[in-house]
């Protein structure tokens, strides 16, 4: 305890010393610039200023510039970096065999029409034969047990944190911020408290649990971690854990729009370590854009947890989900485009908007909104693997190639919709295929209930030397033709 307290004080003392050094260096450089400028313009000053003007007035003339410069250097937000991340790779015991899954539906007392509908959805979903579910969801009768849900949470969360700490050699007592996001399952104590207890985090660690924020909550958690890190001493670290616990959330009713979640969602999770220190960092976080369309009733209710007519709880997915996701994406792009696109693409987009307004009364003109070439600004796209229809819609909207959406399709095929952690599986796919290069930009786009579209732009500093454990044993089989339907 004493050694930790000394280390903790040393950390803050070090930050104070660094601030003093920066201030002293800034004052020295600024003073040198002032003196040099005075020397250069001495001849002009002799004719402009009175010969009796004291030299101290020259210093006062540049004092506002000095104050503004120092204030900017001290108050500007710190850059946040991604040290590393780890994804959960379930073992083969949790694989969902399509034929066994169909038999599970029959034993769940569903009628033949419903079973036929669900098997058709499964074949077209884009999911492969190695996606994973907790055992309790794979075999009837479905058991709603908090003990089993906590067991799933501990297995997923502790595994990814252990992998992350092994990758980074990070120590638990160096974690300053802990943020966990899980939408469907809450428990007392929270999952954040569960991590604090397991890894014996410090008593002053700021921990938060985000619930009900949907599949885009991972980027919300990253944004929150960034904001907190920027208020703390240089070198502080934030641990972000994103997961979705499925035990106890299997819908056993007969409402078709609520049965879709059983087909799409699968086990998964990711742990991310962020810091304001560039040391050992692998990515730089450049921008985060958050947009919510929840003010519209249709958007608010398009992914909605409620009870069906028989009182059975489930998640209802609206038939307008893809269209609402498209509207949320457009709202996000409106804000993200100026910080993502190069000037040439921004100019073309602006001229296109002007052309649309000029020719709006001329129906025969047929002017269409220009779709920017995002590929000219971003090397890698990580689009939330919410389902094949969602990925297809984003590909059409952004005019992306099959190669650019490959990480999303392969992640959906191998792991299914792992909710907020899917974006990290996609980044891990890019690195496992060894296509990530220093300086490459990665654009993460997440969708979630509410309805929200959040995006984050990263810049690669150091690509991974080896594949993340989630992809290590199967990356050699990808990419593959995922248009072939799975036999059920």
UniProtKB/TrEMBL annotation:
Keywords per UniProt: Acyltransferase, Membrane, Transferase, Transmembrane, Transmembrane helix
CDD domains noted in UniProt: CHS_like
Residues covered by the Beta-ketoacyl-[acyl-carrier-protein] synthase III C-terminal domain: 377-459
FAE domain: residues covered: 73-357
GO terms, biological process: fatty acid biosynthetic process
A single GO molecular function term of this UniProt record: acyltransferase activity, transferring groups other than amino-acyl groups
A GO cellular component entry from the record: membrane
Pfam families the record matches: ACP_syn_III_C (PF08541), FAE1_CUT1_RppA (PF08392)
EC nos: 2.3.1.-
TM spans (from-to): 12-35, 55-74, 208-229
Enzyme class: transferase
This protein's pathway: Lipid metabolism; fatty acid biosynthesis
Protein family per UniProt: Belongs to the thiolase-like superfamily. Chalcone/stilbene synthases family.
Protein name: 3-ketoacyl-CoA synthase
Species name: Panicum hallii var. hallii
């Amino acid at each position: 305890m004493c050694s930790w307290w000394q280390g903790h004080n040393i950390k803050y003392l070090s930050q104070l010393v660094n601030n003093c050094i920066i201030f002293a260096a800034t004052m020295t450089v600024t003073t040198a610039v002032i003196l040099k400028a005075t020397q250069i313009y001495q001849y002009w000053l002799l004719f402009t200023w009175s010969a009796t003007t004291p030299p101290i007035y020259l210093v006062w003339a540049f004092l506002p510039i000095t104050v503004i410069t120092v204030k900017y250097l001290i108050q500007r937000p710190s850059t946040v970096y991604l040290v590393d991340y780890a994804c959960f790779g379930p073992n083969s015991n949790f694989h969902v065999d399509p034929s066994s899954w169909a038999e599970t539906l029959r034993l769940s007392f569903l009628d033949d029409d419903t079973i036929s509908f669900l098997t058709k959805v499964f074949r077209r979903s884009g999911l492969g034969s190695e996606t994973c579910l907790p055992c309790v969801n794979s075999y009837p009768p479905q058991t709603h047990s908090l003990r089993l849900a906590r067991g799933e949470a501990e297995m997923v969360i502790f595994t990814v944190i252990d992998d992350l700490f092994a990758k980074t050699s990070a120590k638990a007592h160096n974690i300053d911020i802990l943020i966990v996001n899980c939408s469907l399952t809450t428990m007392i104590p929270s999952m954040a408290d569960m991590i604090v207890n397991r890894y014996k985090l410090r008593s002053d660690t700021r921990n938060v649990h985000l619930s009900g924020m949907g599949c885009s909550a991972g980027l919300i958690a990253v944004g929150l971690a960034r904001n907190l890190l920027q208020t703390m001493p240089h070198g502080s670290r934030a641990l972000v854990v994103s997961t979705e616990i499925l035990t106890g959330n299997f819908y056993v009713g007969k409402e078709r729009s609520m049965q879709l979640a059983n087909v799409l969602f699968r086990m998964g999770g990711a742990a991310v370590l962020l810091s304001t220190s560039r040391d050992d960092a692998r990515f730089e976080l450049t921008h985060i854009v958050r947009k919510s369309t929840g003010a519209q009733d249709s958007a608010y209710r398009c992914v909605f947890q409620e009870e069906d007519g028989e009182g059975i709880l489930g998640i209802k997915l609206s038939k307008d989900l893809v269209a609402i996701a498209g509207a949320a994406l457009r709202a996000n792009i409106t804000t993200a485009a100026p910080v993502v696109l190069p000037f040439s693409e921004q100019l073309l987009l602006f001229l296109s908007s002007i052309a649309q307004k000029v020719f709006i009364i001329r129906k025969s003109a047929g002017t269409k909104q220009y779709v920017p070439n995002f590929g000219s600004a971003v090397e890698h796209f990580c689009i939330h693997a919410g389902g094949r229809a969602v990925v297809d819609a984003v590909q059409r909207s952004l005019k992306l190639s099959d190669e650019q959406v490959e990480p999303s399709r392969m992640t959906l095929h191998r792991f299914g919709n792992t909710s907020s952690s899917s974006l990290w599986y996609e980044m891990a796919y890019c690195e496992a295929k060894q296509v990530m290069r220093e300086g490459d930009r990665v654009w993460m786009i997440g969708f979630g209930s509410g309805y929200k579209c959040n995006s984050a732009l990263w810049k690669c500093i150091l690509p991974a030397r080896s594949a993340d454990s989630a992809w290590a044993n199967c990356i050699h089989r990808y990419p593959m033709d995922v248009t072939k339907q799975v036999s059920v």
